[in-house]
């Protein structure tokens, strides 16, 4: 652990003057007198990689984070030499590299400085471990703001904070506690209306200091490895995030049911308890798609075994649950019990798959099963073996998803809560110690799990959820925010963590609704579910030590609120699925903090609570007890109150009255929101209408709806349906244009369009330029029109 203050350490070394430079295609090398090499690689016009070595040569270039299918290629690249610096120019930015010391500044084409080195790259030799502690410092101006970095439990804007990245099992963490479970060394800077991003792709323990130590300096450093970072230019935050997400990868679509509601607890057992929980959901008509088995389903916590006393016939149980629409998800941890009669242990031992200490013996640590050894998931052969272990669970028993936990990796009864640092890892052919592999251990476990589940679930889609993750883990897995607590403060934290994960490329995330540790009051649970249904992943989970956390553990009001909000989530499934599609296709985060939504409005820069769900719904949770309202900021534009349909003009902070069974939800004027009927689980009902809620706006607005078979891979062959709507509102007119793409034929044949906020009475309706007659059968007084889905243009003309 580094304890000295980062920047003023006297032992720091700096690059000296440039003595040689050469260009090889998209890379430019600068050699200094003291053997430092800076390699600048132009990946895209607004994406530049900076990689330093102090040895006079580069080691093998290997990263678990980078997606090999990322887009690259630029339009323009020119390197010029000036008297005191070299300049690398693309069609978007210029980087100036000082001849004297490699210090770099990046400017836009109008010569506005976007980001500039303070001391720039410097380092300290690590005599204890060998290698360097690598450091970077950048100048920061007063108004600069910082966002990103994954699961941090602190305010959204990180200005003034120092943060640490070291994956840690942080049971019942508190606000501002560092470090947490995930490691996303990516941040976004916003200065003078320009956004940029930095991804410091280094898996050692890293630190980020955003003007905490010195007001005008932002710095980051790692306890080993290389100074290796990517610079993204916006100037829109949207572009920074999508380009980071493209670089580190996107997931595939989950099956639609995964976007439903999930119920979990530590632990549901035996079998009749699981079934009782499931049937209670159906009885109370609270939709639910998934139920989880936590560690007690196993025999003595041995992964890939079943406790036959609690679960005598798992296959039968899983099938019966499936008949009722429930998918079964099971937990699998990395620790393999040391037990010579346990087949998984025996196999791994025979094949020499466990992690070893530097001196040779297998690394031993205690977790739930007692003493365990731990597979080295950084070995591709081990990952392949691990993937194969899922055959029985998935193919034979019918489990639909796997939950990976304790993969920071967590070890009990030791002060550092994890492996000793000398443990050796294969690291895909780049052997190293746990210092380097620690932060990616969980991701490699989830990756192996994903490949296993996918293989055996095929032709259906897999579902994996993990607790620990490093940048890029989103390609394989969803995640949750770990062991939170049933407190109001944690509701605030959950709201921020999920937004932050969304702008950190890893948006398929949710919190343990209601809190994991301790017991929520009914009111807290209700407020949490009201937020949780707007998170990409929606699951109630609890430690179960203090009581029950199913909706019916609370009073009638809370049960009704839970049903009302889960119903709303199920109605919004096509909207949610569409935002997921935009995430996997374009890297657009599913939730958008207000600053992401409108960075030019400085009112948004320090907002935490409000966010945009998808593109067109504004949500603001109630985060305090006994509140029937709150102050909130409505971003610029026109918004309809979802509950009252009243129009609000944004760009201001207002007091909003709510009820206990409501939180502030607004829909953007002009939006068309697709809805399905409430179902108890995905696929329960066949229906002939897609509901479209159209919120009138005087002006234009686009809305899209993505649909497909809801599972399987046909969508990759073009079998999807993509509807693009454009609504054009005028004083006494409304035009809706529809453009369709894709080869998937949606099962419904009609749209039911609900017109909200129409400022005129309808005199005439034309569909594709033909006047249609309308009466109560297709256009009722509430303003809802039922029409055939095959239309190109709908035209309402008013009085
Ligand atoms: C860890 C997990 C939690 C799980 C428990 C038992 O605390 O974070 O979700 O329920 O272990 O497996």
Automatic annotation (TrEMBL):
Pfam families in UniProt: DUF5110, Gal_mutarotas_2, Glyco_hydro_31_2nd, Glyco_hydro_31_3rd
Domain Glycosyl hydrolase family 31 C-terminal: 587-673
Gene3D superfamilies tied to this protein: Glycosidases (3.20.20.80), glycosyl hydrolase (family 31) (2.60.40.1760), Golgi alpha-mannosidase II (2.60.40.1180)
Domain Glycoside hydrolase family 31 N-terminal: 38-209
Keyword Protein transport part of the UniProt annotation: no
Coiled coil region boundaries: none
Domain DUF5110: residue ranges: 689-757
Keywords: Glycosidase, Hydrolase
A molecular function (GO) term: carbohydrate binding
Keyword Cell membrane annotated: no
GO BP annotation list: carbohydrate metabolic process
SUPFAM superfamilies, sorted: (Trans)glycosidases, Galactose mutarotase-like, Glycosyl hydrolase domain
Boundaries of every Glycoside hydrolase family 31 TIM barrel domain copy: 251-579
InterPro entries: DUF5110, Gal_mutarotase_sf_dom, GH, Glyco_hydro_31_AS, Glyco_hydro_31_C, Glyco_hydro_31_N_dom, Glyco_hydro_31_TIM, Glyco_hydro_b
Family label: Belongs to the glycosyl hydrolase 31 family.
PANTHER family for the chain: ALPHA-GLUCOSIDASE, HETEROGLYCAN GLUCOSIDASE 1
Protein name: Glycoside hydrolase family 31 protein
Source organism (scientific name): Flavobacterium geliluteum
């Amino acid at each position: 652990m580094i304890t000295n203050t980062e920047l003023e350490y006297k032992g720091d070394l700096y690059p000296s003057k440039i003595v040689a430079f050469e260009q090889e295609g998209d890379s430019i090398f600068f050699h200094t007198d003291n053997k430092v090499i800076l390699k600048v690689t132009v990946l895209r016009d607004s994406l530049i990689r900076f990689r330093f070595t102090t040895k006079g040569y580069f080691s093998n270039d290997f990263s678990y984070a980078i997606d090999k299918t990322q887009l690259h290629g630029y339009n323009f690249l020119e390197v010029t030499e000036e008297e005191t610096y070299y300049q690398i120019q693309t069609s978007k930015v210029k980087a100036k590299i000082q001849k004297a010391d490699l210090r770099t500044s990046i400017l836009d084409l109008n010569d506005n400085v976007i980001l500039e080195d303070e001391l720039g790259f410097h380092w300290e030799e690590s005599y204890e471990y060998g290698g360097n502690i690598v450091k970077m410092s950048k100048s920061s101006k007063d108004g600069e703001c910082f966002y990103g970095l994954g699961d941090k439990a602190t305010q959204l804007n990180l200005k003034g904070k120092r943060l640490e990245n070291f994956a840690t099992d942080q049971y019942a963490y508190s606000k501002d506690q560092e470090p947490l479970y995930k490691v996303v060394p990516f941040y976004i800077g916003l200065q003078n209306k320009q956004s940029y991003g930095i991804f410091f792709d280094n898996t050692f323990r890293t630190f980020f200091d955003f003007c905490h130590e010195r007001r005008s300096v932002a710095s980051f450093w790692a306890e080993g490895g290389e100074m290796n970072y990517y610079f993204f230019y916006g100037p829109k935050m949207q572009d920074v995030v999508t380009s980071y997400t493209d670089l580190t990868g996107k997931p595939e679509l989950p099956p639609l049911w995964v976007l439903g509601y999930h119920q979990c607890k530590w632990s549901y057992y035996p079998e009749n308890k699981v079934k009782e929980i499931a049937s209670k959901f159906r009885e109370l008509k609270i939709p639910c798609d998934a139920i989880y088995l936590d560690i007690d389903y196993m025999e003595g916590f041995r992964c890939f075994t079943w406790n036959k006393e609690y679960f005598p016939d798992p296959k039968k149980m899983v099938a019966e649950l499936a008949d009722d629409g429930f998918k079964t998800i099971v937990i699998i941890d990395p620790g393999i019990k040391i037990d010579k009669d346990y087949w998984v242990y025996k196999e791994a031992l025979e094949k020499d798959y466990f992690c070893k200490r530097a001196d040779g013996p297998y690394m031993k640590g205690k977790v739930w099963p007692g003493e365990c050894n731990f597979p080295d998931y950084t070995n591709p052969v081990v990952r392949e073996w691990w993937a194969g272990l899922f055959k029985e669970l998935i193919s034979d028993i019918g489990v639909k998803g796997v939950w990976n936990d304790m993969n920071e990796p967590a070890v009990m009864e030791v002060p550092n809560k994890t492996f000793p640092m000398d443990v050796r890892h294969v690291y895909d052919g780049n052997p190293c110690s746990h210092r380097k592999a620690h932060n990616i251990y969980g991701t490699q476990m989830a990756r192996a799990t994903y490949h296993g589940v996918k293989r055996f679930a095929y032709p259906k889609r897999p579902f994996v959820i993990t607790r620990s993750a490093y940048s890029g883990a989103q390609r394989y897995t969803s995640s949750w925010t770990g062991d939170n607590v049933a407190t109001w403060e944690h509701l605030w934290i959950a709201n921020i963590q999920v937004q932050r994960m969304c702008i950190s490329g890893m948006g398929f995330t949710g919190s343990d609704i209601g809190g994991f540790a301790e017991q929520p009051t009914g009111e807290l649970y209700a407020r949490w579910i009201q937020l949780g249904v707007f998170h990409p992943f929606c699951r109630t989970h609890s430690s179960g030590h203090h009581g029950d956390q199913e909706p019916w553990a609370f009073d009638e009001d809370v049960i009704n609120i839970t049903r009302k909000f889960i119903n709303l989530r199920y109605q919004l499934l096509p909207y949610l699925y569409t935002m997921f599609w935009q995430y996997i296709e374009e890297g657009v985060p599913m939730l958008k903090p207000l600053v992401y939504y409108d960075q030019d409005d400085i009112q948004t820069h320090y907002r935490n609570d409000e966010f945009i769900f998808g593109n067109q719904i504004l949500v603001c949770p109630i985060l305090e007890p006994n509140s029937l309202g709150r102050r909130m900021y409505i971003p610029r534009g026109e918004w309809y109150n979802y509950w009252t349909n009243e129009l609000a003009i944004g760009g201001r902070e207002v007091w909003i009255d709510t009820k206990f069974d409501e939180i502030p939800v607004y829909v953007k004027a002009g939006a068309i929101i697709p809805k399905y009927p409430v179902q108890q689980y995905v696929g329960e009902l066949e229906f002939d209408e897609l509901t479209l809620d159209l919120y009138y706006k005087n002006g234009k607005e686009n809305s899209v709806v993505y649909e497909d078979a809801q599972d399987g891979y046909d969508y990759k062959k073009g079998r999807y349906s993509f509807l693009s709507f454009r609504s054009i509102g005028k004083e006494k007119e409304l035009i809706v244009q529809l453009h369709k793409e894709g080869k998937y034929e949606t099962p419904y044949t009609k749209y039911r369009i609900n017109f909200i906020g129409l400022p005129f009475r309808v005199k005439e309706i034309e569909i594709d330029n033909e006047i249609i007659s309308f009466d109560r059968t297709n256009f009722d007084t509430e303003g809802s029109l039922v029409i055939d889905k095959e239309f190109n243009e709908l035209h309402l003309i008013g009085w």
